[in-house]
Structures are given as structure tokens and as C-alpha cells.
Write a structure and sequence with these properties.
homotetramer; 275 residues; alpha/beta; Alpha-Beta Plaits; Rossmann fold; 2 domains; seven-stranded mixed β-sheet
Chain lengths: 275, 275, 275, 275
């Protein structure tokens, strides 16, 4: 059972926390702790074989910590996710098969697309697919529709699996640090339209992918994982895109695993990841 | 013996080139060829066991190719380099030991620093070190001094091994596609001062390094190699910098090897690299 | 259109081949050539925009090459594969989704399992699944049954996607260099039963996967691709196995892409791979 | 200041340790803890900003732990090493330049070679070089001479930087878990003479390197780091060896950093590495 803790740093935090557990007779199987000295922040992830009274332990630990402490014992034991997609299938296919074989660490409630292209693959796995088109709609009404579809599922996380719409700060604000996006990225980086074409023109030798939480600025939220893949001059545009897709699938899969196992902490637009 | 060829594309180029070699009785050991279809450019690197009459072969191949062809048989068989440095030793140390053990593929003529810090390590290897300080000098007079030191060595390449001065377009123009630089880079990329601090603040999970030819825009020339290295939240600033240095050393070493073995072709601000 | 050529080396081979193409008015888009000097073997992969008379070109090229030459113009344009599995789904799921979205480069004819576990996932994609149990059968009769299922599909390749049965030399001989297997592997390597447990005991820091053609000795055929992934002391057995699976999926996917794009040549139990 | 702890596991260890520190007014900056559940072993590495009374803290922590506990506060603050070499320079050059610029994390006392080849590079850095030839000597007398050279330096670690002699169990026993070796390794692995030639023959696509503590069986001690590098069919023997050397240098450098920063714990022929 996982315990995650985040608070301002102070002398004796680990002792205080571990005393609570020791007194209750629980043995720590694994503990990861990090202090950001510059920011004076403390983070811990503790694994205990099992805890019979999680709420009591949560309260007891909270009591021995600074007032700003966030303590969660066994947070979201069965995580539920909603997946947003557009037309590209690579991330979604990977999510659906992992979900099907129960190796995702979360349970896919539904898939929502702004195009119908991925309805068939979704339904093959008996997962509901909802088409919410953005066409001929204001962003407000589009997002209201999205929201109406999402809310009944009460998801713990929204996964943007190559969802190509920019979401409003209001929408994002409703799912604070609960939206995970996968974004291509390059060395040197290219923003603007058609980054793969720009990368091709520039002759890059590496392409990357960044999985991150979504905050107001779509591609600038706290980074969870980054992966890179080597490319060369023989890659034409379609090869670059194919390589990029493999890399995106792999980076998003890793990020989801880390988040779903409660290994990721967010603060000040960055993350602590106990890998 | 290496033959490198670059020209506009056309039907029968490979046939024409290889006929010249076959008729002269030379057997191709290895051949790499690339056509950039969008740009209509042809590139080839051919290895032949040995060539007794390189100048004749060069002329004979040139004759069968389009007018813009650049053909070099056994280009720069013993490459000479001058290394420019500031204070950081990691790339220079690597270059000096490779040079000492004759595994660099080029011969270091001298090291020029705008600070004296790396004089001792250089001289330990019996390589001349010249201090050319930039202080209290206009860029023109500084670069004139640099040039005066460099020219007598008649180097084939200048290596900027963590040389922290920006060179003028005029200076760079005197060594067109003969200056190789190593540049840190990040996903997402940070420009401006103190990129490692920015990267730390942003919580990046990967840092990179790009070795490239220097053109007018210092960090934007044709990319030769890129390498990345994984980092995590436990890295403080000095750890990030250390990891970055390992990566820079490795990326510059690889780039030099590729260039010195005539595996790199430049066009339109990008490269073909026959690795 | 791809042309692949394999023969003993000699002077003027590239010239001869490219003359045939030039005379027929075909322009070479990309050419990869390799000579194994020790073995005196020549390999080439040529891409030409399109060829209207492939059979004529095949004959014309063959005529100008040594007697042992194997020349294929547009080999197996639509490759058909049969996939053999046991219980683990990771490689099969990846193959099925790639096949579904037509990014596999081959067409899955059927899946054959010696256990029924993967019937459901296969049929979700409207691909036939055949159960051929090995239980209570001699190897001969088991393989005869397998063969009877496979032959009607006339596959170009058999993919062993975590197929856990050892095949007889006779069976393998019927599909010479047409069977691709994925095999876990380690540094240092462990053979024998339960390699992941051995790796755990030994505290390895890297685990690998090797995709290879199957020859008589199951895990020792010509290597197509190898991938590695870093692990650490915090991995328990199930973590190691999960990491190994990700790596196997990725290595097999890459190997299939290379083979299906005719980039792999086999000789003397090793490969030339024009990546 | 680093505290390292290793003992059998039990309830409340972290609480006990951190209480000692908290009561003494020391704040934990960073803590890594690992329990091997199968082996019932506990490991911790704690960083505290500074400790004025290390011996008291060591005693106080030891008192609250199981009887088998090994506790070290600020272990070997200035580590001393002796480097053993034969003829290959790549690892030694890297060690000498790091040592020169004080980025090694240890101080090189001397270099001992069984050949004179690396005397010059060593002495360029004003480090003593001792030639201890193995020729015409029994292993016993050779090792006695080695020992006589090593002992006066009282080193914390011996680094075998491509030292090509096999050491006796007696010699190794005198430096229990204090000898670090770098060993090439392959997927699949080759033992026996000339592994690079075997790897070439087998057409491997990856070569590796393993840095490990030396125990009785030379290449089988607890693994500290492993690195791999991709190679391909175009590599001739000398290319493979060059790539292998880069990789060995990099793996050994990383292993030394980890050991010298007290991040490596050994038990049951394997390691816990808090990277």
C-alpha cells in the first residue's frame, strides 16, 4: 500500500512519519524521500505491505507534519481514466490493449474523439466511444459538451492521447493536475505548426516526446517523462513521423505507469518522480 | 581511401561514377549514397582499398558528373585542427588524450584560450597553448589577434571546445563549414543565459548536446550529432552541469570522428551523415 | 520500388547494376551497399521511384552479376505473415493493432496458439485464431498439425511472438530464414530456465531483447535487432518481467519493420541491416 | 555529509534512525532507502547538510539498529585509489584527467602497469607509475610484488582499468569489495578469448560493458553499472573495439562516481545503487 506525502520541509519529518508507522506496527517496505532545498519542500513515497486502517494512518501522519501537508494513504486505489483523441491511433491502441489485459494500472471508462476515426478500435475492446465534434461550435459550447460527457464517469485523470484541440484555461482548471498530455519535442525545439517538417528541414538527429501535466499553457506544464529516439538524413517526413509516434507511445505509457503508481509529485511547475 | 561526391541529382550518376572506378580496376569496398529528392541533391561516400592516382580519378569522376559536382579523392588525408577553449576542460582533455594516442583522426596543432586556465593541461601533452585574451579589446581586434595565431597553422578545422565567445560573421566566413561547435541543448529548449538553471527550474528529464558546424547564427548551423542523457529531480545544479559535460564530451567526440572520416556532407543548413 | 541483391564480390558490380538501371531510364533514389571483405560478399538495396517491368530488370541485373547472384525486384510486395503465440499478449497486441491500422508492412493471415488465451484479442480484430495444443502429442504430430494450419495461408514469414515451444530442425527447415523470433537476453547472459529470476539474483542493470531469424539452434540464429533497457535494484521480479516485455515488443516491432521493408540480408549466420 | 547503513530489516528502522538525527538537530536533506524483502535486508543512504560529531552519530545510530548493522557516517571522506593497467589507455586517460581537474571524487595515488606503455601518460600528470612486470614470475611472486607496491599507498579502492591479468583469490581476498573492474560484455554474451572477434562473427547489434566489484570469479562479481552501445554490420573489428572502448570508459567512470559518492551497497553478490 502506498503512502504519498508532500509538505514544507522541517527537522524530523521522516522520523515523525516513520514513528507513526512503527507504532502502528507497520513495516516500511520501500521509502523514497526528496527534499528540494531551494524551495524548502519535502516529498515522500512510502510502501507498506498492507494497512488495515488507512484513514487513521492518514490522520495520524498528518497530525505530526506541518500544516500544509498533503498526506494520502492508498490514493485512488482503482484509478479511472477518460481518454481524449483526435485521429491518430498509436497512443490509444497501446492504452486499449494495456487496459484490456489489465496492465495499465487504471481503468479506461470511455474514449472521446472530436473525429470518428477511432470509434471502431475503441469499440472492439468494448469501451464506449463518444464523438464530440468541435465543428461549427464555439470553444465554450464544445467544451461544455465535452464536460457533459466526461463528468458522469468521474475520472481521476484525463489522458490526451494525441488530442489535437487546445483546451481553455477554464476547462483545464476543472481538472487541475489531472490532465496528462503527450507532446512531440525536438532538439533544438520547434514550436509552431508542422514541427516534423521544421525538424526535417533542420536535419535534426534526435526527436523527442514529452509527457506532462496540462496547465494553462498547453505544452508547458510539469514534465513527467521525456524520451528521445535517434533519426538520420535518410528519414523522409513519413519516417520522422513514424519514429515520433513510436516514441510518443512509449513516453506516454511510461508517464501513465508512473502517475498511476503514485510516483509523481507536482510543485512549482515541476515534478518529483520516484522511478 | 575515401571518395566523397556531392552534386545535383540525375539519372545514372552511380553508374557513371562506379564505371570510372571499375574501368580503372578499383573495387568498391563500401558505398553510401543518398538522394535528397526534395532538394534534388546527390551525395556519395565511396571507400576503395587504395588508389594510386587520386588526382586522375578525381578528374575522371568529375567529368562524368553535373557541372556543380564537388569530388574529393582522399580529402585532407592528415587533418590538422586548432582548438579554441575558455575555462572548461572536459572537451579539451578528451581531445588531448585522443590526440596523444593517435585515435583522434586529426592532429592538434595548438590550443588557443581566452583565459589561461587550460594552459597547463595542454602543455602537459606538448601542444602549444596561446592565450588570446578578449579583455579590453574590440571584437575586431580580438578576432584579428585570434586569426593571426590561427593562420600559420593552416588548420583544416577549428574546434570550439566550450569556447564561450561569440564570433563575428566575418570571422566565421573565413572558415566556412570548417568550425565545429558543441552546444548544450534541452527538451524543451532554453536559450538565453544560464540554460542549466532554466532546465532545473523546469524539471527537465533529459538534457542534450548538439555538435554542429558554425554558421552566422552561432547555435543554428548544420547539426552533425546530437546526444541526450537522462536526469531526474534529485539532480541539483552542479549534477545537471556534470551530466551535461559528460554528454557534451561524448557528442563532440563523435562529431569529430564523423567529420574527420569524411562522413559528413553539408547542404542547405543540414547534413547527410554516413555513420 | 526496392531491389535487393546479394552475390560474391567483384570489381564493377555497382557500375554494372547501375548501368542497367540508367540504361532503362530509372533513377536511383537511394542506394545502400555493403561488402564483407573477409567473406568476399556483396549486398545492395536500391530504391527506384517505380519500375514498370520488374521481371525484365531482375533478369537484366542478374545477367551482369556473378553466377551466385540473388536479385529481387520488388520482393514480396504484399507480405503475408502467420503469428505463433502461447499466452503472453504483449507482442501480439502490438502486431494486431499495427496490422489493423495498416502500419505493419505485412498482413496478418492468422494467429496460432498452443493455448487459447489469446483467442479473444485476436478475434476482436477479425483475424482467425487457431488453437493447436501440444498436449498429449508427440512433437511430430504437433508440428504436423501446425503445418497443416499454416500451409494454406502460404505465409512469407512466421512470427514467433512469445511462442514458447521449441521447434524441430525439420519444421524450421521448411521455413528457411522465414521464421522470426523474439528472445529475452541479458548482460551477462543467462540461459536455462527462468532467466528473469537469474537476472534478479545477479542484480543486472540492463536487460535486453534480441529479434532473430530462427535456425536449427532456437536462440542462436542471425540477429536482426537488439534493444536494451535499464533496470535497477528496486525492480522486483514482476517489474523486471514488465520491463522485459516492453523491450521485447519494441525489438520485435523494429525487426519486423526492417525485414518487411527488405532491409535485412542474411549470410553465414549473421545479417546486413540497411537501417 | 553522507550516512550509509546496511542491516537486516525490521519494523521501525527508518523511524529509529531519523529520530536519532532529529534529536541531534540534524535535518535530512535526502534519503534513499531500500528493503530487499526476499533477503530481509535494509539499506539506507542519508544526506545531512553537515554533522559536527560524526562518531557520536555513528554510535547512536548503531545502537538503535539490529546487531548486524554497518553504519558509516561520512565514510572515507577523501578516497584514495590505485589504478592497475596493462596497455590500453582509454580508461586510464579518463581517470587521469578527471583526477587532475578534481572531478573524480577520489585521489589517484599511483598507477601500476604490467607493461610500460602507460608510463608516459601517467607521469605527464605527475602521478607515480610503477612497472611490475608479470614476466618470468610465478603468480605468487608477481602478486607479492604488486602488493608491496600497493600497500604503502593504503588505497581505499583498486581500479582495474583494463588490467589484463587474472588475480588470485588470495590477492582479491586482501581487498574484499575494494577492487573495481571493467569488463566488456555482449548480447548474447561471449566468453573465451577474443570476444570482439566472436561478436563480429555473430553479427551482434549491441555491445556492452559491465563495471563490477571483483570477487573470486574475475568477471562475476557484483555489478555496479552496465552500459550498451549500438553497432551494425558496417563495423569491422577495429570499429567494434573502438566502440567498445568508448563504452567501457563511460561505464567505468559512472561506476567510480557511484562508488566514490557512497551510493553502492553490496550483498549476496549483487548491489543496491542509489543513483
Amino acid at each position: 500500500m502506498v503512502i504519498v506525502i508532500q509538505c514544507k520541509d522541517g527537522v524530523g519529518l521522516v522520523a515523525a512519519i516513520s514513528s507513526v508507522l512503527a507504532n502502528a506496527g507497520y513495516n516500511i517496505v520501500s521509502m523514497r524521500e526528496h527534499v528540494d532545498l531551494e524551495e524548502n519542500k519535502f516529498f515522500a513515497r512510502i510502501v507498506v505491505a498492507e494497512i488495515s486502517d488507512p484513514q487513521n494512518i492518514e490522520k495520524a501522519i498528518t497530525k505530526v507534519l506541518p500544516a500544509d501537508a498533503i498526506v494520502k494513504v492508498n490514493p485512488l486505489p482503482e484509478k479511472k481514466i477518460v481518454v481524449l483523441v483526435t485521429k491518430e491511433h498509436h497512443c490509444l491502441s497501446d492504452i486499449l490493449t494495456r487496459n484490456h489485459f489489465k496492465t495499465l494500472g487504471a481503468s479506461v471508462q470511455c474514449v472521446i474523439g472530436n473525429h470518428p476515426d477511432l470509434k471502431s478500435i475503441t469499440e472492439r475492446f468494448e469501451i464506449p466511444f463518444h464523438l464530440v465534434s468541435h465543428e461549427n461550435k464555439s470553444r465554450e459550447s464544445y467544451e461544455a459538451e465535452l464536460m457533459a460527457k466526461i463528468v458522469p464517469y468521474n475520472p481521476d485523470y484525463l489522458i490526451l492521447a494525441k488530442f489535437m484541440r487546445v483546451l481553455s484555461p477554464e476547462f483545464i482548471g476543472s481538472f487541475k493536475l489531472k490532465i496528462i498530455n503527450i507532446h512531440h519535442s525536438f532538439l533544438p525545439a520547434f514550436s509552431g505548426a508542422n514541427p516534423y517538417r521544421q525538424a526535417l528541414k533542420r536535419g535534426v538527429k534526435i526527436i523527442g516526446a514529452t509527457a506532462h501535466f496540462v496547465t494553462d499553457d498547453l505544452d508547458e506544464g510539469p514534465i513527467i517523462t521525456q524520451k528521445t529516439i535517434s533519426v538520420n538524413h535518410s528519414y523522409i517526413l513519413s519516417d520522422l513521423i513514424r519514429a515520433g509516434r513510436e516514441n510518443e507511445t512509449s513516453a506516454l505509457a511510461k508517464a501513465m505507469q508512473l502517475v498511476f503508481e503514485d510516483r509523481v509529485f507536482v510543485y512549482n511547475n515541476k515534478t518529483v518522480v520516484f522511478e
